[in-house]
Amino acid sequence: MNPMRKLIVSCIFLFSTFLTINAQQPDPVQPAASNPNAPEISFEKTVHDYGTIVKGSNGTCEFSFTNTGKEPLILSKPISSCGCTVPTWPQEPILPGKSDVIKVTYNTNNIGPINKTVTVYSNAQSNRVLLSIKGKVVAPPTETLPEKQNDIGAAPVNK
């Protein structure tokens, strides 16, 4: 077999081995799809609209949720659609009937439209929930200082 053919066959073998190993990696939190007692995550809202906010404003919002299932709810690391959006989530299991919040902070130093997502993974029956933030960041209004009126030709007042 010529050396070029050996190289091609070796590359194909390594690539297929990589795909096979990668496909067998388990999810960080396994869904409980067939368990009738499984936890369930219920959000009050899944979209937060900032409206129009000024550059440098507080970009933190909260998404409240409740475990409406019968077993403890475990959240894994939420994944944001970009580095300008940072989620903070509870690290401890959420017991049935209990509520908590996921905080999402958007960097409002970027002027322009906001249209970002945070994907929340958990062991709930619906193991993936998409949270969205939207709005628009605008430049702060420019402040103009009052100008001094210059009365050219006026004489000073002497007392």
Question: If you had to describe this structure to a student in words, what would you say it looks like?
Answer:
This protein has 1 helix and 8 strands. The protein is flat and about 100 Å long. 13% of the residues lie in helices and 34% in strands. A 4-stranded antiparallel β-sheet has the order 1-3-6-5, with no helix packed on it. Strands 2-8-7-4 form a 4-stranded mixed β-sheet, with no helix packed on it. By secondary structure, the chain is mainly beta.
Shape field = flat
The biggest beta sheet, please? 4 strands, antiparallel
- N-to-C SSE string, H for helix and E for strand: HEEEEEEEE
Strand order of the largest sheet: 1-3-6-5
Number of strands: 8
Percent range for β-strand residues = 25-35%
Stretches where pLDDT is under 50 for at least 5 consecutive residues are 22-28
Helix content: 10-25%
Could you write a compact summary of the structure shown?
It contains 1 helix and 8 strands, in the order H-E-E-E-E-E-E-E-E. The chain has 159 residues and is mainly β.
